[in-house]
Write a structure and sequence with these properties.
single chain; mainly beta; 4-stranded antiparallel beta sheet
């Protein structure tokens, strides 16, 4: 029922910027928290950022705080991740996720997931 479709991944030089988008559909998201996770080869899936749909309150992983910005557009049902000052260690497949609830959870207990989009940052 809920569908999340990511776009915007690609190849970028270290220090550059890239913006990912997640098109959400299937229902009203007023009671949801939306998030971005990432997974690098050989590593566990890692929380990046989350946003509460109703009031735009956010939560960020320490590794991206000050560099990444998560936002949502209620009119277009879009969740974006603006990534600045990118580092090679940001290289990963990035996933959009959604869960019902109020808390901006940093764990992987989300109910819906997108297909992922590859971000590669070269040194």
């Amino acid at each position: 029922q809920v569908q999340l479709v990511e776009s915007g991944g690609g190849f970028v030089q270290a220090g550059g910027s890239l913006t990912l988008s997640c098109a959400a559909s299937g229902r009203t998201f007023s009671g949801y928290v939306m998030a971005w996770f990432r997974q690098a080869p050989g590593k566990e899936r890692e929380f990046v950022a989350a946003i509460r749909w109703s009031d735009s309150v956010t939560n960020y992983a320490d590794s991206v705080k000050g560099r990444f910005i998560i936002s949502r557009d209620t009119a277009k049902n879009l969740v974006s991740l603006q990534m600045n000052s990118l580092k090679p260690e940001d290289t990963a497949v990035y996933y959009c996720a959604a869960r019902q609830g109020f808390l901006l959870r940093a764990d992987s207990t989300y109910d819906y997931w997108g297909q992922g989009t590859q971000v590669t940052v070269s040194s």
